[in-house]
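Record Phytanoyl-CoA dioxygenase, 340 aa.
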Amino acid sequence: MTAIATRPAPMAYENPKWGFAGNMNIEDNSGSRIDPEALGWLEPLPSDASEEDIRTKYERDGVVWVKGLIPREKVLAMRTKYFEYVASSGVLKEGSNPTDGIFCGGDPHKFAGPGVASHLGVTVAECDFLAKSVSAHQEDFVKAFAQDGDIMKMVTKIKPDWKDPLLFKRQLLRSNIPNSEGTATKVHFDQIFLRAAPPTSLTAWVPIGDIPPESGGLIYLENSVPLGYAIEEEFTRINATLSDEQRMSAFNVNMVERGTLSRDCGKFAKEQAGEKRRWLIADYEAGDVVFHHPCMIHASGVNRDPLGRIRLATDLRFANRAAPYDHRWANQYFIPGDGL
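=>
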């Protein structure tokens, strides 16, 4: 396993469009604004960066944001098809362009999507938007998008020792409705949900459309892979007396917040990180892809998109087919309540 640096990399990068990260209003799942002094910018790399630079950044930081990896028009075509697919649920503003994904207004909890609905107690039976979002995972246009060749090429650059990389069948199309309280992604790391194998998988988070800094994109806790390892080692210790099935579960009796670590990003960083770490934010654009380590701690902000756009993204996960991997994720589509 490649060692991850235990000292934070210098973060001198400032976003040329937005300036100081502290100017941004980033709210977490608890409804609190993250302390502006605790914010920094995630630094991108161009898609034509050298393999050495890409691997160095991943191994040092635990996350690498690649600009323009996928053609923008391909991503926007996927966004259009998705919103056309779910439009009959009434989620879109009447007369708006599906590519824009403008929310219709009203109670956002009536349009809870995968990854959010279970936290809110919303079921497929009572939410047509959720039902259509779930069934979309098995549609050919979604599967084809996940199998993008440029993403797989980048996986092989980050993991050159993987001679036969495997794309897990289970992905999660996450939609975050604007101004929806309590629906931002809570603080977590992916290994909590992938415990049936060692922490060797790789996640590709793909924004399906533009996601400006205050529109609910992923935020990453600086230099947090070592902290993620330490937290998971503690869970391993306290889970030792549980059955094999329970030890693997992200929702076992020793977990909180349905497998997550906290709703409050600011409080978590101050009380759990043990040293000053910033939450790194970004101005994501259609075509970007972010790759992160399974122990990299991350969350998302509340979607405060000024145009009322629904934040849409997908989580793709990869593993080395020649090594142990979590077969629960590899062999089935997302189903609400599947325990993952």
